[in-house]
Amino acid sequence: MNVFQTHSQIIKDYSSYVSNFINISDPAIREKVDYELENRKLWPEPLLQFNPAFEMAGKVSDLANTGVIHPAIADIFKGYSLYQHQVKAIELGTKGKDFIVTSGTGSGKSLTYIGSIFHYLLSNPGAKGGTAVVVYPMNALINSQFEEFNKYKEKYEKSTGEIFPITFGQYTGQEKEKTRENMRENPPHVLLTNYMMLELLLTRTRETRIRDAIYSELKFLVFDELHTYRGRQGADVAMLIRRIRSQAKNEITCIGTSATMVSAGTPEAQRKQVAMVATTLFGKQFEPDQIINEKLTRSLETDGSIPSKEFLAESMSKPVPDELEVEFLKKHPVAIWIENRIALEEKEGNLLRRRPLDFRSIVSLLSLDSGIEEPRCRTFLEEMLQWISKINKKLQDANVRYTYLPFKLHQFISQTGSVYTTLDQDENRFITLEPG
């Protein structure tokens, strides 16, 4: 699929749809509305966001061989490689220490708490149901994660020929009554739920066994997508956590994950801010060294410098390569320009992801740095991004986890509103689409 053609068609269809409902007799108002629509009033320029590469730290089997995690985890996550932030988080979790992981989409945040929980359960084969509760903000995430747990189970049983020793289940209100009854009779080691259902589990009579299991056996309390709990909902969750901790027999390891907790400031300042939020939410002290930030790396062959104007212009005078080869991509001047000018920035020796930019601004920057006119820059940039997507698709089909400059195109589309005008009919008349 060509994302740019799809995007263009969606905007064209919506523009046509909106225009068909507009019938304005007043020529001045009509002129104003037409002008605003032509200047993308309801569909601003799309934002382009890149997901940079994360620094690798080795395979799961390497971590198992060093004794950081239980050897059987190498069978559960067979063939997996770990990022640097995953290893740092798992090292804390396996020691029973609280942590928060704040890394981007696709960075494997869930594996940090799953690895920590699995390590404990495998190291303590006598552990009972209710050892871990993982709370998600949406049932769709629970369904997705439950499928991942099933994959881990299948991989372990296929690799070892033994029954998976860890029980797990989702309890959301969507499950059939028989499934829920089985969990009430035999609470699983790992319970996947949402915070509203967790609240009900602790108060309803028919879930007494699950409640008692949580209070007597709970060792890990995980909140995924921590940034969603704010305001009144955040206060509800904070009180829920305090109630659980006050009734629990064990010291609970509290874990949180989020991709969008804090975006401004230095990495150290970000960790301090997240530690304050985590302390407030979980009701226990979090220090900055318990906040695990993503560690980024450059994926292309570059020292971080921007290619020269001549080099960029020369590369753009030729068509985008047909070969779907990583080696061509890693050396291409425009790809290097994208990574170092748009995707990444360096602060205090740390690589950080840049904020998303609208596509028009990126085109203007490329035109400025290359000396090539903007229409050619836009066309070349679209073709370059399509080429990168095809290479990543080829890698994905070959079961290669690593990708190069994957991107998202964000388009905001507004619904129609009202037109506001003064009563003047002369040059003092004021017409606007903005309320107030």
Describe this structure in words.
This protein is α/β, with parallel strands linked by helices and 436 residues long. Helices cover 47% and strands 14% of the residues. The chain contains 17 helices and 18 strands. The strands form six sheets. It has a seven-stranded parallel sheet, sandwiched between helices. α5 packs parallel to α6. The protein is globular and about 80 Å long. The two termini are 42 Å apart. The mean pLDDT is 92.
Major sheet size, sense and barrel closure: 7 strands, parallel
Span between termini: 42 Å
Structural class: alpha/beta
Mean pLDDT rating: 92
Residue runs with pLDDT of under 50 for 5 or more positions: none
The shape is: globular
Number of helices: 17
Query: Which radius of gyration do the C-alpha atoms yield?
Result: 26 Å
Q: Helix proportion of residues, in percent?
A: 40-55%
- Total beta strand runs: 18
The largest sheet has its strands arranged as 7-8-6-9-10-5-11
- What fraction of residues sit in β-strands? 5-15%
Topology:
Layout: H1 3-19, H2 27-38, E1 47-50, E2 53-54, E3 56-59, H3 60-65, H4 73-76, E4 81-83, H5 84-93, E5 99-102, H6 109-123, E6 132-135, H7 139-160, E7 168-170, H8 177-185, E8 190-193, H9 195-201, H10 208-217, E9 220-223, H11 231-247, E10 253-258, H12 267-282, E11 291-293, E12 296-297, H13 309-316, H14 326-331, H15 333-343, E13 344-347, E14 350-353, E15 357-358, H16 359-370, H17 374-397, E16 407-410, E17 420-421, E18 431-432
Parallel strand pairs: 5-10, 5-11, 6-8, 6-9, 7-8, 9-10
Antiparallel strand pairs: 1-15, 1-16, 2-12, 3-4, 13-14, 17-18
Helix pairs in contact: 5-6, 16-17
